[in-house]
Amino acid sequence: MAIVFLAIWTVILQAGFSKTMHITMNDKIISLIDFSRKNLTTMPDVLHNSTTDLYLQENHLHVVPAWSFRKSRILKNMDLSDNRIRFIEHGAFDGLNELTILNLRSNLLTSNSLDENIFQGLISLQDLFIHKNYFYDNYTFFQTVISRVKSLVKLKIDLSRQNQIDKCLCNLSNLQDLEIFEVPGLTLSDNLFQNLNCLKIETLWITSVLSLAPNTFISFPNLKTLRIAINTGYAMDDVISNIFNALKIFKGRNMTELSITGNPHRNGFVLGHPHFAILENICLQKLNLVGDSILGVKFNPFLDMDLKRIV
Ligand SMILES: *[C@@H]1O[C@H](CO)[C@@H](O)[C@H](O)[C@H]1NC(C)=O
Ligand SMILES: *[C@@H]1O[C@H](CO)[C@@H](O)[C@H](O)[C@H]1NC(C)=O
Ligand SMILES: *[C@@H]1O[C@H](CO)[C@@H](O)[C@H](O)[C@H]1NC(C)=O
Ligand SMILES: *[C@@H]1O[C@H](CO)[C@@H](O)[C@H](O)[C@H]1NC(C)=O
Ligand SMILES: *[C@@H]1O[C@H](CO)[C@@H](O)[C@H](O)[C@H]1NC(C)=O
């Protein structure tokens, strides 16, 4: 379906102390509504029954009220990231049977902000981005809420030192793409991830890495793409060696894309470094090394590797 983009320049009537903004619109098909970066503090009443994409990111919204989105049942993509949302009312997302992408990144959500069934009606939801929030107060509860969104394919969550991935996420049988935003201070190991071996995760992103144990990736037998962003400020001196040790597990497997970024130490990739011997055993197609850690790469090892692209 062609996405009709109509910027809405219509008059905004903000009546007195009314908490809601009302927008007058022509009887047009309005597929995309972009109210991002408008300094909104309350949920605007802008939806049209033809709206499929709603952008409300980078405002100052505090609450998502019940039935906020009742005017469009065909909403597919909603961005509420970078607001100050502390509370999502019971039924806020009710009726959104077609919602596929929901972005709640960078808000002030805790486990008290949500009710257990808040996402239950989102039967088409594939991508949920809910990282950079504050669910650590009751991470078990948070994971229970997430585990009910059985249609999820892609998930972005936080994980901190005292938390662990729960078995309940096994219910996300379609999940393929997991991005974990780590709160600094953690050495990653299989202890954190072992409950994920019930899933067929193909893409894993981990950020803010300080250090990794050799068994970190044992529970990801189906991994094809691995992206590791090192915590530039606090990474251990031997973080790169840790990472390559952990990669040994992929020997003989089709781990086709590897990305390592942000190593602050000038010890990462030097000519003919033995790290590359580990890569030779993995069926890599794409290698992405970014940061000031690259002192020079000897390309000879790659000649044997059927490497399609080195970025
Ligand atoms: C939002 O508020 C900031 C700071 O008060 C101001 O500079 C900016 O112009 C405002 N943006 C809009 C779209 O009103
Ligand atoms: C959407 O609203 C317009 C009037 O605003 C109406 O003519 C049309 O039938 C509505 N479409 C649906 C699918 O409800
Ligand atoms: C987490 O939330 C659940 C459900 O609200 C509650 O039963 C449990 O006691 C909470 N746990 C903690 C540690 O607060
Ligand atoms: C998966 O969901 C079902 C209900 O849909 C629940 O009974 C079961 O405990 C869940 N599994 C796990 C491992 O939490
Ligand atoms: C790797 O991929 C190739 C081509 O898709 C396939 O033939 C081979 O069986 C795969 N190997 C493993 C270990 O999965």
TrEMBL record:
What is one term from the GO cellular component aspect held by the record? Answer: extracellular space
Q: What keywords tag this UniProt record?
A: Signal
The UniProt record lists the keyword Signal? yes
The UniProt entry, under Pfam families, shows: LRR_8
Q: Which InterPro entries match?
A: Dev_Immune_Receptor, Leu-rich_rpt, LRR_dom_sf
Asked whether the keyword Phosphoprotein is assigned, the reply is no
- PANTHER family xref list: IG-LIKE DOMAIN-CONTAINING PROTEIN (PTHR24373:SF395), SLIT RELATED LEUCINE-RICH REPEAT NEURONAL PROTEIN (PTHR24373)
| Name of the protein described by the UniProt record | Uncharacterized protein
Q: Which organism is it from?
A: Mytilus edulis
Its lineage opens with: Eukaryota, Metazoa, Spiralia, Lophotrochozoa, Mollusca
